[in-house]
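does this look right to u?? S-adenosyl-L-homocysteine version
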Amino acid sequence: MQQTKTGENISSVLLALSAMQLWLLFSFSVASALPEQNDPFAAKRHVMIERDIKGRNIKDPAVLKAMEKIPRHLFVDKQLQDQAYEDYPLPIGAEQTISQPYMVALMTQSLGLRKEDKVLEIGTGSGYQAAVLAEIVQQVYSVEIIKTLAVRAEELLKSMGYRTIKIKTGDGYQGWKEYAPYDAILVTCAVGSIPPALTAQLKEGGRIILPRGDTRFLQLLVLGVKKNGTIEQKSISTVRFVPMVGEAQGTGRSSE
Ligand code: SAH
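got this back:
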């Protein structure tokens, strides 16, 4: 009798101990799936990755890793931070938007980037897309026509420790000749056709992705590859982006 009781006691202690071990193991594995434990948005970001990015067939491990890491909420105003991990664009001032996370993932994945690539982005906006690129490739150049946005993005990215992103205020219709040629070009504003300067600044075999078409309505997301000096294009989906202003529209708009 006594024997059995002691046996029971021992086994219940053992049971409690293994339950505790299991719990510790579980909480550890949850913790390691969520980087930056002190980031109050880490859990939301993880949900976004699972639901809107992996859940919509984005598979490139480098893209997933970058977007899991980058605190997207820092790229929007405080009062919008709660929505930073929802799958839609958000205003960033000057009538511009930070693109929807899925679109950032799709465009980045489509370029098939390699670590050693040099990438040009047209339309810095908040700087979020540039950060995603900088997590994946060696060097990122980004051109933004609205000076206030370019300056703000540059300061934010610097404060976050990004050293491989160069930003300039200017009309991206002309690309950024100084650092050409590029392995890949990503355009985040809609334009009727591929600007000749971008074709010229793309390496042979390089990839370009852009929303192409009538800038007032929907556009086609187009992926191009440069072959024998011209761009072979294929469309990926229908999208809606803000228009490329300046020379693309023949308005000669200034940079304020
Ligand atoms: N990539 C950005 C989203 C940008 S929205 C992000 O991650 O937040 C498109 C941006 O293109 C806007 O900031 C707009 O000002 C900019 N833009 C429009 N026309 C441009 C041009 N001709 N040259 C450079 N940038 C331009």
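The pocket of S-adenosyl-L-homocysteine is lined by residues 96-99, 122-123, 125-126, 128-129, 143-146, 149, 171-173, 188-189, 242, 244-246, 248 (CB under 6 Å). idk if thats expected tbh
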